[in-house]
Design goal:
The chain is mostly helical and about 325 residues long. It is built from 14 helices and two strands, in the order H-H-H-H-H-H-H-H-H-H-H-H-H-E-E-H. The chain has helices at about 1-20, 25-30, 35-55, 60-65, 70-85, 90-95, 100-120, 125-145, 155-165, 175-185, 185-190, 195-235, 240, 270-295, and strands at about 250, 260. A two-stranded antiparallel sheet has the order 1-2.
Length: about 325
Amino acid sequence: MIQRVGFQLARGFLMGAADIVPGVSGGTVALILGIYKALIANVRGGAHALKQIVTGDPKGGIESIKNIDWVFIIPLGVGVISAFLILRHWMEDLLVDHGEGLAAVFCGLVAASCWLVWRSITNRDATRLGILAGVAVITFLVLGLQAGAVSEPALPIFLLTGSVAICAMILPGISGSFIMLIFGMYWAVLVEGSPTQLAVFAVGAVIGLAIFSPPLNWLLENHEQSVMAALLGLMLGSYRLLWPWPHGVGDFGESAEEFVSGTDLGWPDTIGALGGGIGLAIAAAVITLAIVRIAESAPKETAPSERTPTPSA
């Protein structure tokens, strides 16, 4: 029991750390660590229990709650939250003082994630390639309309962002911080978020799990290849936002009040800056893929439905 809890805390911390940066997602880490099916099964059970309670079947909801593997979920959640709280402020100085270099690292992380998703697409027919290309082009064009980070976002924006960003736990290949970047909420959540704002963000995450997990699970079970192609297109199109020059991913300037756009496309001032950016991106991608290979040998967790029942005495 203690060993399992320790493993879950470590796995949760890795998932949370992955979702701090727009690279390999928490869902991808869960997949790599062999706990993805168990995670989805427990999330689905929680969403079903919440639905039962809301629709007037509290007794059935309580029974569904009892079937959730809390020894799996609670330490995993504690690990994710711990990573978020420990690492979130570490990003502030990097965003302001080393924006281009950090964006180059993000590019490498996302490139590694793109390779992992591409590897999972086994049906590379015209339909899947068309979905990939179409989503990539649309994402690239839409991100060009984004002005920058959201200034003083209202609480409903935190609620909405949390409800969508949590989908990264369900969809391998896309990270929660990546979604926050697209929404212009990366800085607001990771750096400036107050306890109240972060609590609203967490409530949004719970609501998002309840609302989105059933349809996303259905899509993954019935149209997995198309979903993965769309996710890959989304990540490729996001390079409009991740391109390091001239402002990295944008957000705030050094005054902490000056907004700068992360979707302007430019070129480095020197060959050295270009080489440094490429080097950081390659290093980030190589390290990520090396960690993936090591993590693939970690002990696996089975979903509740896959466990062998304990024989009765």
